[in-house]
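Run log // design_07
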């Protein structure tokens, strides 16, 4: 793998959207791999590699691949366009791949890298002997012929996470708060719960709830494949449990008054324009809802790419990260 320059101490966070690849992404992925001097000879073989891509605007600016071997996966082909490095894209790609792989029953990821060992160590991977990799992974084309013998072999196990599922710890609850609780906070709640790992859960409320969820919010979530069962507009006075984190999503810049939650919780502001106030054609209004959703999703993905296990016990650091995401991720 090529050098992956990821400064986790201070970086400009990209607006890139992380998503599974589509057949139309093939040429863009191939170009990135060739630019990064990564193996590409086998990407056209059917059922070999599943890719996730980072898309910014109309351009694919990053990619990462996964080969599946039962409960083990081979992480490969992590690449970010030179113009988009130092923005957290590599870490977000890896975090998304890990989450989806774990949900698919993969308990161990193995990789080979010639230049990015420090980056993967920050992501929780540890060096292992190449001979210690599972036999099926050692038989892969990447191990047999595509990567040199000098490459570092690294591994990450999800056994600890599986154990937590059997004996769950206390859930960290995130409240997305706005005024009406019909659009933005509903989109954020459903998206967070769709993407979040075990031990993290979102809810939503409004300071002056409308009493109904906007139908365009529900339609958008359905198009994105995100469950919205049980979504309803409610007051912060009706919450069954107190939140640990409160994120307000009203848009102060638009002159909207942001509610002040009085509970003892970490607080952050992720201002987003209210699509319920959008006017124009159906296409224009739908575009406003999509823009609000995409901003919220980008910020949620940036949060979930952080070392959550560490931040759970470091509230001051967590608040700094939440505020950074609210100002730097759009």
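design_07 sequence
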């Amino acid at each position: 793998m090529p050098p992956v320059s990821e400064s986790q101490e201070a970086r400009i966070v990209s607006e890139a959207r992380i998503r599974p690849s589509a057949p139309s992404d093939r040429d863009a992925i191939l170009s990135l791999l060739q630019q990064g001097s990564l193996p590409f000879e086998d990407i056209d073989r059917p059922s070999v590699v599943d890719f996730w891509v980072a898309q910014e605007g109309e351009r694919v600016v990053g990619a990462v691949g996964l080969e599946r071997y039962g409960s083990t996966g081979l992480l490969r082909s992590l690449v970010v366009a030179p113009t988009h490095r130092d923005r957290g894209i590599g870490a977000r790609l890896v975090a998304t791949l890990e989450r989806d792989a774990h949900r698919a029953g993969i308990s161990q990821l193995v990789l080979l890298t010639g230049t990015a060992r420090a980056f993967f160590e920050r992501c929780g991977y540890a060096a292992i002997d190449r001979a210690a990799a599972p036999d099926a992974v050692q038989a892969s084309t990447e191990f047999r012929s595509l990567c040199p013998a000098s490459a570092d072999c690294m591994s990450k196990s999800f056994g600890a996470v599986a154990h937590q599922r059997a004996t769950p710890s206390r859930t960290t609850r995130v409240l997305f708060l706005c005024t009406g609780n019909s659009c933005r906070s509903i989109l954020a709640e459903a998206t967070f719960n769709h993407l979040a790992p075990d031990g993290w859960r979102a809810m939503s409320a409004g300071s002056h709830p409308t009493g109904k969820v906007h139908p365009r919010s529900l339609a958008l979530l359905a198009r994105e494949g995100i469950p919205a069962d049980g979504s309803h507009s409610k007051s912060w006075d009706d919450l069954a449990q107190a939140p640990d984190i409160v994120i307000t999503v009203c848009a102060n810049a638009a002159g909207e008054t942001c509610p002040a939650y009085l509970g003892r919780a970490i607080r952050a502001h992720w201002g987003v324009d209210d699509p319920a106030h959008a006017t124009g054609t159906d296409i224009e209004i739908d575009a406003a809802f999509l823009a609000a959703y995409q901003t919220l999703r980008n910020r949620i993905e940036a949060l979930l790419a952080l070392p959550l296990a560490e931040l759970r016990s470091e509230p001051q650091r967590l608040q700094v990260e939440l505020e950074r995401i609210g100002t730097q991720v759009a």
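The domain at 172-328 is CATH 3.40.50.2300 (Rossmann fold).
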